């Protein structure tokens, strides 16, 4: 009997399994230390059977009920230290900020970035690029009144776009995404895009699609078994195709900038980066080259669009679910700003209730429930353990926001979490949507400005009308993983 026909696929399968075990094993190979205890892992799959990749942060929170606020979980063969609750996250990310300032493995981004850019680099490269970005963004108005006027102007364009709906039901995802993206485009590319620009629209569709796939079971499985998922079919491959299109878009913009560059008068972030590339072109150790420019631009463009626009969409849903909260925000807008002038950042300190509502929305939804994975930058003693250099760390930001030692009745939506007894706004150390410490979100200040100015401008002009009774509005995410993605919805905006 000839067995060769049956043996070939079996042999192939065996070889493939050995290769995957080897590749996966490499992810898990770390120096020994003293890791916190956790659920016993199985070879290759790790703790997969104790986790639900569709609801990763919830299943990690659940495991902490058995293993405590600090434990080790194996994603495939990669051991990760999970930090759950305010105290654990604060002790690591704030009290030992330097030790916990590394970026951990994140295969779904790494395959595209190769560790270039700010968000997924480490060591000296990360420090240099982050410092450069902060400095340059500041020079282009981030954190000053010039970015404030840019947001105010964009908010007016958004209002005009909304007025065109004439009170008919619509899904706000596209206009919001375009408005938010335009703010960062102005700083990075030196221009905004018309809401009708089809190339730009397609690109933003790719953003939304990627955020959704990365926040689905496919994104989570890719992060756990990257080598296996590379060879298995599935929607996750779309992430990389979409990222490639984004790369082409950015590369094309860089080419135009190179053509028109006036080194004496840089117009935007890309110009400044190109000038620095030119200054350091003889230095073989320079971090300023085309690939780091593309990825840094990508970090700002993608990071600056998806999170903020998702927060705004969620805000609409929440305000429609709690109309009494929306009514009080309207009242405060009418009282402090009135109908005739655009809201400005200085209004914030006179609008404690609105400020508290915006904080509470961000606490309640935690757009990135697991932050981005961190890593320890050296062998790190922590609460009696010794985490070997490079150990992945997952800070469960959602668990901080739902920590009953920090917020009363945390599963309820309650703006009083951010108000003192006299109705004045009070922040909380446990408010961490941007993750604290050395790697805190680079756009946190910009995001806060945008959320305030976009929302107050829209509420100044419109009242929000849901298509179903408020009690039926479902705030649970459509998918949750990297991000919490709200369910698609339509609403009506009526002029006030
Ligand atoms: C509501 C809006 C936003 C939220 C909730 C958010 C959240 C986060 C979080 C949790 C991280 C991970 C930080 C860490 O590892 O500790 C992060 C990183 C980052 N964010 Fe944001 N972000 C928002 C808006 C923005 C904006 C507007 C920009 C662009 C200007 C931006 C750019 C970045 C970058 C570049 C990083 C990487 C920082 C680093 O690794 O050093 N983000 N963000």
Proportion of residues in β-strands: 5-15%
- Lateral strand order in the biggest sheet: 1-2-7-4-3
Identify the CATH class: Mainly Alpha
Based on CA atoms alone, the radius of gyration comes out at 24 Å
Structural class: alpha+beta
CATH fold label = Cytochrome p450
| Helical content band | 40-55%
Small-molecule binders here are: protoporphyrin IX containing FE
SSE string: HHEEHEHHHHHHHHHHHHEEEEHHEEEE
- Coarse shape: globular
Strands, count: 11
Head-to-tail CA distance between termini: 84 Å
By CATH, the architecture is named Orthogonal Bundle
Tally of discrete structural domains: 1
Question: What is the CATH H-level superfamily?
Answer: Cytochrome P450
Low-confidence stretches: 1-16, 21-26
How is the main sheet built?
Answer: 5 strands, mixed
Any overview of this molecule?
The protein is α+β, with helices and mostly antiparallel strands and 496 residues long. It has 17 helices and 11 strands. The longest helix has 32 residues, at 290-321. The model is unreliable at 1-16 and 21-26 (pLDDT under 50). Helices cover 52% and strands 8% of the residues. The protein has one domain (28-495): Cytochrome p450, CATH 1.10.630. It has helices spanning 4-28, 56-67, 86-95, 107-113, 123-139, 145-163, 173-188, 198-214, 217-224, 226-231, 236-260, 269-279, 290-321, 323-336, 352-365, 397-401, 444-461; strands at 70-75, 78-84, 102-103, 374-375, 380-382, 385-387, 392-396, 462-466, 479-480, 484-485, 491-495. The protein has a 5-stranded mixed sheet with strand order 1-2-7-4-3. It has a two-stranded antiparallel ribbon with strand order 5-6. Protoporphyrin IX containing FE binds at residues 103, 118-119, 130, 184, 299-300, 303-304, 307-308, 311, 367-368, 371-372, 374, 433-435, 439-443, 446-447.
């Amino acid at each position: 009997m000839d067995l060769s026909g049956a043996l070939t696929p079996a042999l192939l399968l065996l070889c493939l399994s050995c290769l995957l075990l080897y590749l996966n094993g490499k992810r898990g190979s770390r120096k020994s230390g003293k890791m916190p205890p956790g659920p016993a892992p199985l070879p290759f799959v790790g703790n997969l059977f104790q986790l639900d990749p569709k609801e990763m942060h919830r299943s990690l929170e659940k495991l902490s009920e058995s293993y405590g606020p600090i434990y080790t979980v194996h994603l495939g063969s990669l051991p990760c230290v999970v930090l759950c609750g305010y105290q654990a996250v604060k002790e690591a990310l704030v009290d030992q900020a330097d030790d916990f300032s590394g970026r951990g493995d994140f295969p779904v981004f790494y395959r595209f970035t190769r560790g270039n850019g700010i968000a997924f680099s480490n060591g000296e490269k990360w420090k240099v690029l982050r410092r450069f970005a902060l400095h340059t963004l500041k020079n282009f108005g981030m954190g000053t009144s010039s970015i404030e006027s840019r947001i105010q102007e964009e908010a007016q364009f958004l209002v005009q776009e909304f007025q065109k709906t004439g009170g008919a039901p619509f899904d706000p995802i596209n206009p919001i995404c375009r408005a938010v993206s335009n703010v960062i485009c102005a700083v990075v590319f030196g221009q905004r895009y018309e809401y009708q620009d089809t190339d730009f629209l397609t690109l933003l569709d790719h953003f939304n699609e990627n955020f959704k796939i990365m926040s689905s079971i496919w994104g989570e499985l890719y992060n756990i078994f990257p080598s296996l998922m590379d060879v298995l079919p599935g929607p996750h491959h779309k992430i990389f195709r979409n990222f490639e299109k984004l790369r082409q878009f950015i590369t094309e913009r860089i080419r135009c900038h190179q053509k028109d560059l006036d080194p004496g008068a840089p117009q935007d972030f890309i110009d400044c980066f190109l000038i620095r590339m030119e200054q350091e072109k003889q230095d073989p150790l320079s971090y300023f080259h085309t690939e780091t420019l593309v990825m840094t631009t990508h970090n700002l463009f993608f990071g600056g669009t998806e999170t903020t626009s998702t927060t705004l969409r969620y805000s609409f849903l929440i305000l429609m679910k709690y109309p009494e909260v929306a009514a009080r925000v309207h009242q405060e807008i009418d009282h402090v700003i009135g109908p005739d002038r655009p809201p400005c950042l200085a209004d914030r300190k006179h609008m404690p209730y609105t400020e508290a509502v915006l904080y509470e929305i961000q606490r309640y939804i935690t757009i990135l429930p697991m932050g981005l994975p961190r890593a320890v930058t050296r062998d790190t003693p922590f609460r009696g353990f010794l985490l070997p250099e490079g150990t992945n760390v997952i800070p469960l930001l959602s668990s901080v926001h739902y920590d009953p030692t920090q917020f009363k009745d945390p599963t309820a939506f309650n703006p009083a979490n951010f108000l003192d007894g006299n109705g004045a706004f009070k922040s909380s150390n446990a408010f961490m949507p941007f993750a604290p410490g050395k790697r805190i979100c680079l756009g946190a200040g910009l995001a806060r400005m945008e959320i305030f100015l976009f929302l107050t401008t829209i509420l100044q002009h419109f009242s929000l009308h849901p298509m179903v009774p408020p009690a039926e509005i479902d705030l649970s995410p459509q998918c949750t993983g990297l991000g919490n993605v709200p369910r698609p919805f339509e609403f009506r905006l009526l002029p006030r």
